[in-house]
UniProtKB/TrEMBL annotation, chain A:
<protein>
    <submittedName>
        <fullName>Bacillithiol biosynthesis deacetylase BshB2</fullName>
    </submittedName>
</protein>
<dbReference type="InterPro" id="IPR003737">
    <property type="entry name" value="GlcNAc_PI_deacetylase-related"/>
</dbReference>
<dbReference type="InterPro" id="IPR023841">
    <property type="entry name" value="BshB2"/>
</dbReference>
<dbReference type="Pfam" id="PF02585">
    <property type="entry name" value="PIG-L"/>
</dbReference>
<dbReference type="InterPro" id="IPR024078">
    <property type="entry name" value="LmbE-like_dom_sf"/>
</dbReference>
UniProtKB/TrEMBL annotation, chain B:
<dbReference type="InterPro" id="IPR014934">
    <property type="entry name" value="DUF1806"/>
</dbReference>
<protein>
    <submittedName>
        <fullName>YojF family protein</fullName>
    </submittedName>
</protein>
<dbReference type="InterPro" id="IPR036492">
    <property type="entry name" value="YojF_sf"/>
</dbReference>
<dbReference type="Pfam" id="PF08830">
    <property type="entry name" value="DUF1806"/>
</dbReference>
Length: 227, 116
């Protein structure tokens, strides 16, 4: 059973980050009547899947991914989608304080009881890391009594060694179809992964089933830096 | 985009010579290369909207081809691994190299107006 929230704020840098990790959780909250805001920092302009023969160019990809992001939001029933206008692969080079301010204003405006992002140092892509740091800093600087919960997605190869087992495992079986549809919405970047996933689901591969029925989060441990 | 045809691309490169142009140049293995293979040394580079003027531009070699732009006596720009090209509806010359899985590995783009 997913804990009931008053509002959920999700912050990721790339269209499709939400689909793989948390679209079941988003859909569950929306189904139970909780408002969800998704702030997506970039349009994934630097995505590498352009096909061979190519179906898109460097310059046409952002428009495609913007449409896919909106389609994924639709699939999840999400109406408050914010596109924050940064550029893929440059997030870590933005001014750190400006990034914290962006997160602070999102939090102030949406007043979430739960914030979802990546877990700093355990999320692989430099944009993920920079996003996670900014969110953690913004939440950390709040008075402890007013802080929202902070649930983080971690998938680096050393996650188990560093963080142990996830603190929160959401069962999203009921909204599995929505999750698959959210992933399908990002078809330009997910075609290969989905083909493999659907094949494995057809074979009842336990790992694949777990992937689409469970979403795992670590509660951020505020003694780990990033003030 | 379509597969590189040397004469056609050469003709397009010539059109942008001797005028101020904006360059997008990028090489990449993707940000996940070292995640999937921890021994992989991940390197890449990216420039967007560098304003230059080249006096001579060439495309050479059966695709994947090499493209070099000579910036007068000032310097050079080159890219290798170019497989596809397109003159897009904004009149920009987009060249790119896509690997066997359809992933972009290199791109070199030339435009008379800044890229977005
Ligand atoms: Zn991402």
């Amino acid at each position: 059973m997913i804990e009931k929230e008053s509002h959920v704020l999700v912050v990721f840098p790339h269209p499709d980050d939400e689909a793989f990790g948390v679209s079941g959780t988003i859909a569950s909250h929306i189904k139970s009547g909780t408002g969800v805001t998704y702030a997506c920092l970039t349009l994934g302009q630097m995505g590498r899947n352009l096909g061979n023969p190519p179906f898109a160019t460097r310059e046409s990809l952002p428009e495609i991914r913007k449409k896919e992001l909106k389609a994924a939001a639709n699939a999840m029933g999400l109406t408050d989608l914010r596109m924050m206008g940064l550029r893929d692969k440059t997030v870590e080079f933005e001014d750190d304080e400006k990034m914290v301010e962006m997160m602070q204003s999102l939090i102030t405006e949406t007043n979430p009881s739960l914030v979802i992002t990546f877990y700093p140092d355990y999320c692989v892509h430099p944009d993920h890391e920079a996003t996670a740091r900014a969110v953690v800093r913004a939440v950390h600087r709040m008075d402890e009594s007013t802080r929202p919960k902070l649930h983080c997605v971690a998938f680096a190869n050393n996650t188990g060694e560093g963080l142990g087992e996830p603190d929160v495992i959401n069962d999203v079986k009921e909204v599995m179809d929505i999750k698959l549809n959210a992933m399908r919405a990002h078809i330009s970047q997910t075609a290969w992964i989905l083909e493999d996933l659907e094949k494995r689901l057809g074979e009842n591969d336990p790992e694949a089933i777990q992937w689409v029925t469970q979403e795992r989060f670590f509660k951020y441990r505020f003694d780990q830096g990033y003030e | 985009m379509e597969p590189v045809k040397i004469e056609a691309v050469q003709e397009l490169i010539n059109r942008f010579a001797n005028k101020e142009v904006y360059i997008h140049l990028e090489t990449t293995n993707g940000s996940y290369a070292s995640h999937f293979d921890e021994k992989f040394f991940n390197a890449g580079a990216f420039i967007r909207n560098a304003k230059v003027e080249y006096e001579l531009g060439k495309i050479i070699g059966d695709p994947p081809s090499r493209v070099g732009l000579k910036l007068g006596s000032l310097g050079w720009i080159y890219a290798q691994g170019i497989t596809h090209y397109e003159l897009d509806d904004h009149g920009r010359l987009l060249m790119a190299g896509h690997d066997h899985q359809g992933k972009l590995a290199v791109s070199l783009q030339i435009s008379e107006t800044p890229f977005e």
